[in-house]
Amino acid sequence: MLVLLDGVESSHLDLADPRRLMFEYMQQMLATLEESLPGGNGASGIRALHLGAAGCALARAVEATWPESRQLAVEVDALLAQYVRDWFDLPRSPRLRIRIADARHVTEAARADSYDTVIRDAFASRAVPEHLRTVEFTREVARALTPAGIYLANTADHPPLPLARREAATVARVFAHTAVIAEPGVLKGRRYGNVVLVGSQEPLPLAHLDRRVRTLPAPASLVHGAVLESFIGTSRPFVDPAAEEEGGTTVVPGATTATTAEGDPASVVGPAVDRSS
């Protein structure tokens, strides 16, 4: 089943097989999680935060792979979240909770070391919201992750990939280990396409992941190390615009107040992580 948002393909769900992901970037993300996190296919669950829920296709795949998982999917569109719950056979709370909120607010409110993976797949008007791609936001992601946690971010760009290069520079500014996954035609600047950013404070299983993404139905390339440095080049990381101080609270332009549909209590935000590469 295909979900369209504003005429754009947003999610594809195989209702009979949750692990069958039609979008190539989701296949790349699931492969990264399977190679990077322990267990799978019946092993103990993982804790996942999805920033941008749409049809919850990847959340369903995580549930099928790690049945004991606890997942929170954040969606800013309340009507879409309700439709998804009504239409699709999604895992119920607490296995999968859907929260109607701004993704940055939820990330900032998360407890430190509370997620094994944070997955950003959020778009507005066909672009990643600006407040979800900055160094400051990415530091909050790193803080919410366990020390060996995995950050996955989906972006899309036109040749010569100026936004993707800046996003890669942003992730590399915060995480000690960074990689990029995309189809060769996209990386070579031949066409528009998705680029998956990977970040972790612990070493990534590069050899295993490289073999895995090359054998996907749509073979992809894993970029890291010196090749990634060349990909980034002189691209500057994204940073927050000048923030306004209101009553001692930093207000990020573009963010909205969080509300909870199936959420848990808010928590105290701890210190940020800043790890340059």
How would you describe this structure to a colleague?
The chain has 277 residues and is of the alpha/beta class. Helix 1 (24-36) runs antiparallel to helix 8 (206-214). Strand 11 and strand 12 (249-251) form a beta hairpin. It contains 9 helices and 12 strands. It has one domain: Rossmann fold (3-Layer(aba) Sandwich). It has helices at residues 24-36, 57-65, 78-87, 103-109, 135-144, 162-174, 184-187, 206-214, 225-232; strands at residues 2-5, 8-12, 47-51, 70-75, 96-100, 115-120, 145-157, 177-182, 193-200, 221-223, 244-246, 249-251.
CATH superfamily: Vaccinia Virus protein VP39
Strand content: 15-25%
Here the CATH topology equals Rossmann fold
Low-confidence stretches: 243-277
Protein topology:
Elements: E1 2-5, E2 8-12, H1 24-36, E3 47-51, H2 57-65, E4 70-75, H3 78-87, E5 96-100, H4 103-109, E6 115-120, H5 135-144, E7 145-157, H6 162-174, E8 177-182, H7 184-187, E9 193-200, H8 206-214, E10 221-223, H9 225-232, E11 244-246, E12 249-251
Parallel strand pairs: 3-4, 3-6, 4-5, 6-7
Antiparallel strand pairs: 1-2, 7-9, 8-9, 8-10, 11-12
